[in-house]
TrEMBL record:
This is Methyltransferase. It is found in: Endomembrane system; Membrane. One of its GO terms (biological process) is methylation. It comes from Rhododendron griersonianum. Gene3D superfamilies: Vaccinia Virus protein VP39.
Length: 466
């Protein structure tokens, strides 16, 4: 397909133009340099920043690149070349989570502060190396069930979870049988059990976008893809290594996060359903702040599926937790809409968030209190958890929030909480049409990319997600 620059400009396909110009510039520069492509490209970015910023920081301390002998001057770092990080944790190094200096200085660790982001003041000046034996990932959809062990060489999780059928090592592969702590009959059976317990969930139609808390290796989200459901899975980087690294290698959306002292990086009222299977979050702790945070991001009328031992075990310890959960969910006006136990003895309870604020106003005790109207909504990055309930949204006529259209009609329909500004709807539809044409004409047809081999993509300026 012939594509002229003039037509691209006329059709406002600026991302492609900028990408093309950047590619031409970098290619021409590479032909004149002797450095490796990666080292030179990164060096180019760094050298540009030096014109307006102070001298570059040294390599991150836990990854020294060399140790000068006694009386020798420290090494001079070439701004156009980067060294590989080294050390025991080099291949898994995440600057904002492995900032051991900041973690050591924490005043408290009672609320998972050590698992939260603590970014270093100076960015590391080394490149994270690939594991030994790394190879091109197993293609999707085969990767959902097996990946190369050498790409994520973490035997601890395999050993620790060997009796729960999460993951097994088989020759050169890590194999994911679809089991788990709560998936004794397999994750497919568990997913069907949830919908059977509450048919109105309607996987892939009414329920399209969900959040899986404490996801492990994210098999729940991986198998929900068969139901046309998009799951954002998250878990902390814990003692069993970064389990979401296995999820991403499998091709399943996931991120490292924790419900500790800060809000999750998601807007208000967005997820159709939130799921927790033995996610080990103490919902009742700190005045119920963790559950209030789920309430913030759960869509009005949305569901919380809690599959945990307090739901179906009757000993004193579990029943104490269950009673605390009953009191807490009632205080935020969540209603139990279903409860069940499957053939394996695993039980779950499903709560529903209200669609209007009327219940909040009729509570006997105003605990947790309503948030101040001036309380910043949709502000979540590095923001402390709320201990108050935000009023539920209404439309321009004062009517209660309406559920989005069923998928796939929902993709191109006006979002329920689109800005009330006069031009917002027109801008939304313009953006949808623009990206539809741009993806079809340029990204799929005009770039030399075999998209069938691409599974995980990060969109760094998503806008409406077009």
């Amino acid at each position: 397909m012939a594509i002229s620059v003039q037509n691209l400009i006329k059709e406002r396909k600026y991302p492609f133009i900028f990408s093309l110009l950047a590619l031409i510039l970098i290619t021409s520069l590479l032909l004149t340099k002797t450095q490796s492509p990666i080292a030179f490209t990164l060096g180019l970015v760094q050298s540009r920043s030096q014109s307006t910023s102070p001298s570059p920081p040294p390599l991150v301390q836990i990854f020294p690149t060399s140790n000068p002998g006694p009386g020798q001057p420290p090494p001079v770092h070439d701004p156009l070349s980067w060294s590989l990080c080294n050390g025991a944790v080099a291949a898994d190094y995440i600057p904002c989570l492995d900032n051991f200096k900041a973690i050591k200085a924490l005043k408290s660790r009672r609320h998972m502060e050590r698992k939260e982001r603590h970014c270093p003041e100076r960015s590391p000046r080394c490149l994270v190396p690939l594991p030994r034996g790394y190879r091109v990932p197993v293609p999707w959809p085969k990767s959902r069930d097996m990946i190369w062990f050498d790409n994520v060489p973490h035997p601890k999780l395999v050993e620790y979870k060997k009796d729960q059928n999460w993951v097994r090592k088989s020759g050169e592969y890590l194999v994911f049988p679809g089991g788990g702590t709560q998936f004794k009959d397999g994750v497919t059976h568990y997913i069907e059990f949830i919908e059977k317990t509450l048919p109105v969930i309607e996987w892939g139609k009414r329920t399209r976008v969900i959040l899986d808390v404490g996801c492990g290796v994210a098999s729940f989200g991986g198998y929900l893809l068969d139901k046309d459901v998009i799951t954002m899975s998250f878990a902390p980087k814990d003692e069993h290594e970064a389990q979401i690294q296995l999820a991403l290698e499998r091709g399943i959306p996931a991120t490292l996060s924790v419900i500790g002292t800060q809000k999750l990086p998601f807007p208000d009222n967005v997820y159709d359903l939130i799921h927790c299977a033995r996610c080990r979050v103490p919902w009742e702790s700190d005045g119920g702040k963790p559950l209030v945070e789920l309430n913030r991001i759960l869509r009005p009328g949305g569901f919380f599926v809690w599959s945990a031992t307090p739901v179906y075990l009757n000993d004193e310890r579990h029943q104490t937790i269950w009673n605390s959960m009953v009191a807490l969910t009632e205080s935020i006006c969540w209603k139990v809409v279903a409860k069940g136990v499957d053939s394996s003895g695993i039980g779950l309870v499903i709560y529903k968030k209200p669609v209007s604020s009327s219940c909040y106003e009729t509570r006997k005790d105003n605990i947790p209190p309503m948030c101040d109207q001036n309380n910043g909504q949709n502000i979540s990055w590095y923001t402390p958890l709320d201990s108050c309930l935000a009023p539920l949204p209404v439309d321009g006529m004062g009517n209660s929030y309406s559920w989005p259209a069923p998928w796939p009609k929902r993709l191109n329909s006006k979002p329920p909480h689109l800005s009330a500004e006069r031009d917002a709807e027109e801008i939304f539809y313009e953006d949808t049409e623009h990206w539809s044409a741009l993806v079809l004409d340029v990204y799929l047809e005009g770039l030399a990319i075999n998209w069938s081999s691409v599974r995980n993509v990060m969109d760094m300026n998503a806008g409406y997600g077009g």
